[in-house]
Amino acid sequence: MTTAQFITVRETSQVLGITEKKVMEMVEAEELQAYKIAGQFLRLKREDVLRLRSSGNVVNEAIQHPYTASERVRDFFYYNDFYMISGLIVLVLVYVIFNT
């Protein structure tokens, strides 16, 4: 199995066990060398990330915040509002078609 030479910020955060924000802070502080692919996509060398992980210089940020019921409900409506509104419009149109 061959692995990619460059990895994304998200993959880097997963390998190092830190947040994506922390990865970006490390790039800005020049603790990690980042490369822009096609002038747009930020990538990091897998070899550099693995070397940093094995050096022990990165503190794992394994802080887990509870995902509360109110956050779940808010996220549900935020990500599904289009489908709910579309369904409501379809129901209104079906009602108008069959009852007029």
General description of the model:
The chain has 100 residues and is mainly alpha-helical. It folds into two domains: 6-55; 65-100. The chain is built from four helices and three strands; from the N terminus they run βααββαα. Strands 1-3-2 form a three-stranded antiparallel sheet. It is elongated.
What are the defining features of this structure?
single chain, 100 residues, mainly alpha, 3-stranded antiparallel β-sheet, 4 helices, 57% helix, elongated
Main sheet makeup: 3 strands, antiparallel
The mean pLDDT is 85
Global geometry:
elongated
Order of helices and strands: EHHEEHH
Class inferred from helices and paired strands:
mainly alpha
Total helix count? 4
Counted up, domains total 2
Strand content: 5-15%
Uncertain stretches: none
Summed up:
The relative contact order is 0.12. The protein folds into 2 domains: 6-55; 65-100. It has helices at residues 9-16, 20-28, 46-55, 69-98, and strands at 6-7, 34-37, 41-45.
